[in-house]
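Notes to self after the Tuesday call (sharing in case useful).
The group wants a holo model before anyone commits to mutagenesis around the pocket. I volunteered. Ligand is zinc ion. Logging inputs and output together so the record is complete.
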Amino acid sequence: MYDQTLFAHCAVQICQVGRFLFDRGWCPATSGNYSMRLDEQHIAITVSSVPKGELTEEDVMVVDLRGQAVGSNKKPSAETLLHTMMYVRDPQIQSVLHSHSVNGSVLSKYYLSQGYIEFDDYEILKALHGVSSHSHRQAMPIFPNTQDMNELAEWVEHYLHKSPAIHGYLIAGHGLYTWGYSLADARRHIESCEFLLECELHRLHLGAFTRPIKQ
Ligand SMILES: [Zn+2]
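Result:
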């Protein structure tokens, strides 16, 4: 059984991060979901279909790493498998966060045929775990959207097996998944990735980074 005190503590932290992400406009309506590891077998995760601007501790529940509810009859997020697969594949992961921003939704459709977005030469890249210089090229893969979570989880697993050095991925027209070795790590990653997506959208609007020369 999981530690109830730890769960209560995690539920408070999940609500805090959820309200922060909602306030940034990255999880409108009932979109997005958030989780934290409790132990080797359990995670705390947001329940299905709850407005993220009104998140309370009652909206956080416990599931095991197969995604089955533990100690409650609440319904976990429809995308629970995309959380549990990360905790299973890397025992160090302590939190998984998922946003539905405008920038991520649009850019993931724009770049879907390429299969990834690449970011380089941005200072914010240093906020990603293991990156120490702006002079770094970071890929963010994009997977097609589907309601079949098993299929989506398989694509992500296959990609991570080949290319583990990523900090997040996009689902086309849907949103961003990030994770971290602490909730603070995951939150820093989601902020950094969303910042990079916003930069990329601005870059596309400008056409290039070269400034027009005054005549
Ligand atoms: Zn989603």
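Two things stood out.
The mean pLDDT is 94.
The longest strand covers residues 137-143.
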